[in-house]
Amino acid sequence: MLRFAAMRRIAILAACLCVAACTGSPGGAIPAPRFDTPSGLSVTPGSLSMGPGDQASLQASESGFAGSFTAQSSSEGIASVAPVDATSFQVTAVAVGTANITVSDGKGNSKIVAVSVQSTVIGGQ
After folding, report:
1. Burial code of 90-124, b = ≥16 C-beta within 10 A, e = fewer?
2. pTM above 0.85, yes or no
3. Sheet of 41-44, strands arranged across
4. Are 41 and 63 contacting, i.e. CB atoms less than 8 angstroms apart?
5. What's the maximum distance between 2 C-alpha atoms anywhere in the chain?
């Protein structure tokens, strides 16, 4: 009889440990699932290839968003960006290299436009 009681206690302890381990968090609460909804933010063009001194336009749009967008360059020494209006930006190639222009809305969504600034080769060299 004593042996049966000890085995019962071990079984109950094992079940409790299993339940505690399965919850994945302290206190036994299971965290709510996190869903990343896709942003409707669109920026065209999606990438730029330019020569030093060249300028290009970026256009941002987002379904259901009526605010203005912001843009920031990862390297102003390679490619600078300036607003034209609430949805348009002018990118200026400054020097040879690569930079990313990050266009953001007021809701925390953003898109990255890769900018490659290349020197012009004359005579196919």
Report:
1. ebbbbeeeebebebbbeeebbbebebebeeeeeee
2. no
3. 41-44, 55-62, 88-93, 79-83
4. no
5. 98
Structural class in CATH, domain 41-117:
mainly beta
> pLDDT tens per residue, the chain (125 residues)?
556 666 677 767 666 555 555 555 455 555 555 444 556 899 999 999 999 999 999 999 999 888 899 999 999 999 999 999 999 999 999 999 999 999 999 889 999 999 999 997 444 33
Rounded to the nearest 5°, which phi and psi values hold at 110? Answer: -150, 160
Q: Which two tokens stand for residue 36?
A: 């990343």
Entry field: residues in the chain? 125
Distances (CA, A) of 84 to 17, 18, 24, 114, 122: 61, 60, 50, 19, 33
Backbone angles phi, psi at 48, to 5 degrees: -135, 140
Q: How is the chain split into domains, by residue range?
A: 41-117
The alpha helices in 24-81, defined as continuous H runs, are none
